[in-house]
Design a protein that fits this description.
Layout (H helix, E strand, L loop, with lengths): L2 H11 L6 H20 L4 H13 L5 E3 L4 E3 L1 H13 L15 H9 L10 H21 L1 H5 L4 H18 L3 H14 L11 H22 L14 H5 L2 H7 L10 H5 L12 H13 L7 E8 L15 H4 L3 H9 L16 H6 L3 E5 L16 E7 L4 E6 L12 H9 L4 H12 L3 H8 L1
Parallel strand pairs: 3-4
Antiparallel strand pairs: 1-2, 3-5, 5-6
Helix pairs in contact: 1-9, 2-4, 2-6, 2-18, 2-19, 3-4, 4-5, 4-10, 5-6, 5-8, 5-10, 6-8, 6-12, 8-9, 8-10, 9-10, 14-16, 19-20
Family: Belongs to the PrpD family.
Pfam families: MmgE_PrpD_C, MmgE_PrpD_N
Organism: Bacillus australimaris
């Protein structure tokens, strides 16, 4: 059987609800996504997108998180995907090398138009989407990301359409064709990091998933083996041979939402800078160095460990989400690594000048920690002070990552920080009861 059809069969026949840890992680993921979306409800980009969608018109079917309005199913998937990922505050998965929930959850929520109560099946579909996206990430090969593709966009559409297929229990043939439609539209570029387009790529992947399933259910014609062969998805985007050995191995025996697990963020910026953030904050707590006392900062990564951190001299906080130089400068200047520091507001000239003291380096001889997150990664931050003394800190597992994970209570606190305690508790109740419709209504 071809790989595409095997994937469809595996998705539809598995039962994620048998793993109670996976179910709890899915609940945590819904809470974290709510926090990430509500934190972004006043984002400038969402205002522009809303205006464009309203100008276009269409049926008012699905709420947009935090906006008090309904739009069409596809537009809701796009807008809610954008919102969850807008501030880079949403979860990440090391196998994906991207952000699964920002694509999968909006795509699933866009199916809640028929009044059907999916209950825990919604959670199972979400677990399925994360599983597929992680397996796609393992199977595509690391060169995919390194060439400049944005995995959240390129892998997300296929993963989310599998999640929808599980939720709606479509046929194997229908899901294989929907995977084909999603694969044909998969896109996303790392070149867009640090701009509104980066989170929009998550939204567009969610929209693509909804559209792809609609096409398949309508009987629209398309190829049902898009993942296969010399002209297939893996051959074009990555590594066909690797995919054939990795994509379906042991499907359903364990769940990637649990191990290696979702990484719920402490900081609202790219996870590739979280190791450095923990390191510099630890150094600043132990040694109260001021900007003028720090002559030089050396940040050491494994080769490729900073690939996502494309901004070395950002001009504003939005670009600063992808700059280890900016993150370190904020800490040295005594500012908090919170949402207010990562807006479109220009970075002060003195801080931009100071960032030139930060240098990146790479060391392939350093032995990675066996439990490092992501695997093989670390960051060492070394400060050289004005008296020529040096202090350094190495971080292998940043706060929030699997192995140093946030608890459910931590995630509820994150949600409570962007909305009222009452609303946070109501959202929690809806999630615990498996009521996706109530969850969405509360976020409207």
């Amino acid at each position: 059987m071809e790989l595409t059809k095997q994937l469809a069969e595996a998705v539809l026949s598995a039962d994620p609800l048998q793993d109670k840890r996976a179910v709890q992680m899915a609940r945590n993921g819904l809470l974290d996504a709510a926090a990430s979306a509500l934190a972004a409800k006043e984002d400038e980009g969402i205002q522009k997108l809303m205006a464009l969608v309203e100008q276009e018109g269409g049926a008012a079917q699905i709420p947009v998180m935090g906006k008090g309005k309904k739009v069409s199913r596809q537009s809701a998937a796009m807008l809610n995907g954008y919102l969850i990922h807008a501030l880079d505050y949403d979860d990440v998965h090391s196998d994906v090398r991207g952000h699964p929930s920002a694509v999968i959850i909006p795509a699933l929520l866009s199916q809640l138009t028929d009044g059907e109560i999916y209950g825990d099946r919604f959670l199972a579909a979400y677990i399925t989407g994360v599983e597929v996206m992680a397996r796609l990430g393992e199977s595509i090969g690391k060169a995919h990301y390194e060439r400049g593709w944005h995995n959240t966009g390129t892998l997300g559409a296929i993963a989310a359409v599998c999640a929808i297929g599980y939720l709606k229990q479509v046929s194997q043939e229908g899901l294989a064709k929907a995977i084909g439609f999603a694969g044909a539209q998969s896109a996303g570029m790392r070149k867009q990091f640090g701009s509104d387009m980066k989170p929009l790529q998550a939204g567009l992947a969610a929209k693509t998933a909804v559209w792809s399933m609609d096409l398949a259910c309508s009987g629209f014609g398309g190829n049902d083996s898009v993942l296969d062969g010399a002209l297939g998805f893996f051959s074009l985007y990555g590594d066909q041979e690797l995919a054939e050995s990795r994509l379906l191995e042991g499907y359903g025996s364990t769940w990637r939402i649990v191990a290696p697990g979702l990484w719920f963020k402490v900081y609202p910026f790219c996870s590739a800078a979280h190791h450095a953030a923990d390191a510099i904050l630890s150094l600043m707590k132990e040694h109260a160095a001021l900007p003028e006392q720090v002559k030089q900062v050396d940040v050491i990564f494994p080769p490729g460990g900073d690939a996502a951190l494309i901004e070395r001299a950002p001009s504003n906080g939005e670009e600063g989400r992808f700059s280890v130089e900016y993150v370190i400068a904020l800490a040295i200047f005594g500012q908090t690594l919170t949402l207010d520091a990562f807006t479109k507001k220009n970075i002060p000239t003195d801080m931009r000048t100071w960032m030139k003291r930060v240098s990146r380096g790479y060391d392939q001889t350093i032995e990675p920690h066996p439990d490092a997150v992501p695997k093989g990664r670390f960051t060492i931050v070394k400060l050289t002070l004005s008296d020529s003394t040096t202090i350094s800190k190495r971080v292998d597992i940043p706060r929030g990552a699997p192995g140093f994970a946030l608890s459910k209570e931590d995630i509820i606190q994150k949600l409570s920080s962007v909305t009222s305690a009452s609303q946070a508790q109501q959202i929690l109740q809806a999630v615990e009861e498996g009521n996706a419709a109530a969850y969405l209504k509360l976020l409207a």
